[in-house]
Amino acid sequence: MKSLGITPLEPAKVLKTRVYEALKDLIGQMDIYSNEAPRRLDERALGEQLGVSRTPVREAISRLEQEGLVQNIARRGTFIVRKTKEEILDMIDVWAALESMAARMATTRSSDEEIAQLRKMYTTYDSAEETRAHIDEYSETNIEFHQTIIKLGKSPLIKQMADQLFFHMRAIRTSTIKERDRLSRSVIDHIRIIEALEDRDPYHAEQLVRDHALELARHVEKFVDYLD
Q: Do both 72 and 91 map to the same domain?
C-alpha cells in the first residue's frame, strides 16, 4: 500500500491529550456550585484512578489552569475555579444572546428530523411527578437540550463562543434545576420552544429561548446566595 505520508502519533502526546480530556470531562460532570467550598483536585488520586503517573496529570492540570478552569494555590493545592455571582450573571446574559440567535437560525437551517431530536428528549417525561422521580436524568436532558439548540443553529462561530461558556453554564444549571420548582417550569418552557421551532417561527423561538435563559439569571440573582 502506498504511504499516505502521515506522521505516526507520539504515544506520550496521545496520552497527555487523553488525560486532559478525561479530567476536563470529569470536572464538567461535577456539581461545583452547590457546595460553598471549592473542589480540590488530588493529583495522586487522579493518577491512580486513570491508571497513569502523576506527570501527565500535572500537565493536564496545567493546561486546564491556562483555560481558567482550575487554579493552583501555593501550599494548598489545585482547585476548580468557581465564578462569582456577578460573573455567572454576565455569562448567562451572553449565553442568552447566543442561544436565542441559534434558535432563530435553526428555524431556517435545520431539518424537521433534526428539530425532532428535541421532542424525543421529552418522551419519558409525561408528568411533573415523572420528571421529579428522574430528576438527575432530567438534569442531563436539560443540558443536552440547550447544547442541541446551539448545534441546530449551524453557526460554527456561535458554537465556538458557546463552548467557552458551557463549562460554568452546565454547572450552574445542574445546581439550580432542583431549586424552587424550576424543574416544572423548565419542562413547560422547553416544550414551548420546541413548538416554536417546529412552527418555523424565528421571532417566537428567539424570544422564548432568550426569556428562558434570562429567567435563570433572575433566579440566580434573587435566590443563589452561595455564589456571593
A: no
